[in-house]
Design brief:
It is built from twelve helices and eleven strands. Helix 1 packs across helix 2, helix 1 crosses helix 3 and helix 1 crosses helix 4. The chain is elongated and about 85 Å long.
């Protein structure tokens, strides 16, 4: 079997650049580290370092070994973090971030399964900008982030995006705003007052493309980072706003009316975690049930339509 203590010493030397610096960091004699590096190289049957003066440089094989070592010890840290959630007799801590672009009702519905587990959950929920939340996820201050887009490829964060599903998008407004519109949907949106998600929202690009395809030019009277604030302006009669179609009944009870639902636009939702294979019981409950819930809200004819998500995205 691979000696993980030897591998740990190798990783520390590779990061420090010399045995002497690694010795100072680890409070272990250079002779001990050198001997154990030699044993690791003998065990692996290859040279891991080239000496350059007083410094050590990784060989090609050493760089491969370092990449594996980083992943091995990251998995070890992940295991330790996960097992700390299992103290006997205590509620399991579950820290989750919610992007401010995800509607609050959707976020609650997605997170609800975590609150019904047999083992009690102590949830700590933080709302914010996606890059900030992913930064917290990267340092293991969160177990999960709920977002309207997968993790950006440009971010230097190790994480995995798990598709939860999608909902159609609809346009809503107060009765007074709707009565002032001219014509049928979607032409009634032309030059109508519109409240829009800000440019950071994944859905905005789809909306702008759809307006262009329909030859519509709504009058944008407000742009918002926060979906709840956009809805508040809509409820106050300041303009038409968009929301996931699955919330239509909820919004109707809040005093707004449905204007129309374009079949071409879908808002997707993702659970982002540091786990490639989900093992955290709360995260597993969320991903499993959210996929079933979002898929069930879509009419069968639309599930089969080409405009709907691929099956693997559900």
């Amino acid at each position: 079997m691979l000696n993980y203590k030897h591998l740990y010493y190798f990783r520390e030397v590779a990061k420090a650049g010399s045995i002497a610096r690694a010795s100072d960091r680890l409070h272990i004699t250079p002779q001990t580290i050198s001997m154990q590096l030699g044993m690791l190289e003998e065990d692996l049957g290859t040279q891991l370092f080239h000496r350059r003066g007083r410094n050590l440089e990784l060989s090609e094989a050493g760089q491969v070994a370092l990449d594996y070592a980083d992943e091995i010890f990251a998995l070890g840290a992940e295991m330790r973090e996960l097992l700390q959630h299992y103290p006997e007799g205590k509620a399991q801590l579950f820290r989750v971030g919610v992007s401010d672009l995800v509607p609050k009702s959707i976020a609650y519905k997605i997170l609800e399964p975590a609150m019904t587990l047999a083992k009690p959950i102590h949830i700590i929920c933080t709302e914010g900008k996606l890059p900030d939340l992913l930064g917290e996820l990267a340092v293991h201050r969160m177990e999960l982030v709920i977002a309207d887009s997968p993790m950006p490829s440009t971010m230097n964060v190790k994480g995995f995006s798990h598709p939860l599903g999608a909902s159609g998008i609809s346009f809503f407004s107060t009765k007074e705003v709707k009565q002032a519109l001219a014509g049928a949907f979607p032409q009634c949106l032309h030059q109508a007052p519109l409240l829009m998600p800000n440019e950071g929202a994944a859905i905005r690009t789809q909306l702008m493309r759809w307006f262009y395809d329909q030859n519509l030019e709504p009058k944008i009277v407000g742009e918002f980072d926060d979906s709840a604030l956009m809805k508040a302006f809509g409820l106050a009669g300041r303009g038409i706003f968009t929301a996931p179609t699955v919330l239509a009944d909820t919004l109707k009870n809040e005093g707004v009316e449905l204007i129309g639902s374009p079949e071409e636009i879908w808002e997707r939702f993702y659970a982002i975690s540091v786990e490639r294979r989900i093992t955290h019981p709360a995260v597993r409950a969320i991903t499993d049930q959210a996929q079933d819930w979002l898929k069930a809200t879509v009419p069968l004819k639309q599930r089969k339509a080409k405009t709907f998500l691929n099956e693997e995205d559900l």
